[in-house]
Amino acid sequence: MTPFRVTLAMVLVMVAVLLAAGCIAQSEKNNQPGISTAMPPNSAVGNPFQSSGNMGSFTSPDEVSLFLKLHTTPKNISETSRRNDYGDSGYAYVSDCNGIRIWHYALNTPVSKPDEYIVTASSVNEDVGSSTLFNVLEGTRIENITALNRTEPILSKDKKYYITVDPVGNRYVGEQFTISGSTNLPMDDAAILVQVYSSSFFPTQKNVASDDSEASAPVQEYSTTNVQVPGVEEADFVKTDGKYIYTISDNQVKIIRAYPPQDMKQPEIMKNQGVPVTLFVSGDRLVVFSTVAGPADPGRGDSCTFNESMEFVKKTRIHLYSVRDPEHPESLRELEIDGEYLDSRMVGTTLYFLTTRPLSITGSVSFPRILDSSHQVIIPAVNFFERNDSAFAYDVIGIVNITADEPVTAKTFLLGSGGTVYVSLNNLYLGISSPGKNGFSDQTEIFTFSLKEKAISFLGKGSVPGTLLSQYSMDENNGNLRIATTITDIRENNASLGMSNNLFILDNKMNVLGKVEHLAPGERIYSARFMGDRAYLVTYKTIDPFFVIDLSDPAQPKLLGELKLPGVSEFLYPFDKDYIIGISVNSFHTSRGWTFANGLTLNLFNVSNPTNPTLIDSKWLGDEQSDSEVLRDPKAFLFDKRNNLIVIPLYQVTTFQAKSIYNMTYTDYTGWHGAMVFHVDPARGFTEKGFIKHGNRFEEYRLVTRALYINDTIYTMSSFPHLMSTNVIVASDLYNVSHQLNKVSL
Question: Where are the domains of the chain?
Answer without folding.
Answer: 86-198
